[in-house]
Gfo/Idh/MocA family protein (Terrimonas rubra), 303 residues
Amino acid sequence: MKVLIIGLGSIAQKHIQAIKNIRPDSEIYALRSTINAAVISDVTNIYNADEIANRKFDFIVISNPTALHYQTISGLLQYNIPLFIEKPIFDKLQADELIEAIKQNNIPTYVACNLRFLECLIFTKLFLEGKRINEVNIYCGSYLPDWRPGTNFRESYSANKELGGGAHIDLIHEIDYAYWLFGHPSQIKKTFRSVSSLTINATDYANYLLAYDQFTANVILNYYRKDSKRELEIVFEEGTCLVNLLNNTVTWNEEIVFESAQKIAHTYTLQMKYFIEGITNNNLSLNTAAEAYQVLKICLEEE
């Protein structure tokens, strides 16, 4: 299998490892922007997009800064190669024509929201079937300076709105799994702020209020919480379900009903396996570019 990586940062390293876990004999290439780009073991650098047509890649991983995704994907359509796109798909919503072009060209796509492969959420999706929901609370808070050890967090794309960063979109996983579990809300209210001690220009706090027919979901996302917390609480008519994503557990009325030793890091290989099998068997359906664009609309569309 021959794979091209566009954007060779920390998240690309996770995708490369996932590919190697599944297909150890894979040939990995990276399209680099400068001739002085670092050489990484088992990755062959190429420097000209014209080489894409000649290399016959099986798929392309797009993991460059979010603000570059639109331009990158637009330039790749001509090759009709399957696209594995790091989340979020774009940083803006003016992409309806591009989404339609992907559809018209029948290009297989998957947008990497790996929490759909986390076992506690898979359990929860089945657990909530047939139950009356009264309220949903989703929280994701962690400390941005700890995300990428050895780097200046203020120089990362996450901290810079011009690169497509911000908690409201960088932490789109929470909005994505809300969409996956509960569907598209009928009404959306949101608050974005950047007033914490991090002093970055990207949004460091986001609050979404998602209205459904019978319940409301409250989603809080932030970059500044030092004691990381990632939880989903569902208040049913019969009781309360608490999903701890960091511990991979589910409790029902304070009793553990599911627990797993799986770590979030394990989901990168699972999603890559899904994608590779999907393009091999021509049956990709989970979180396509079109679906991811609907999730992005929840994040960014004007109220």
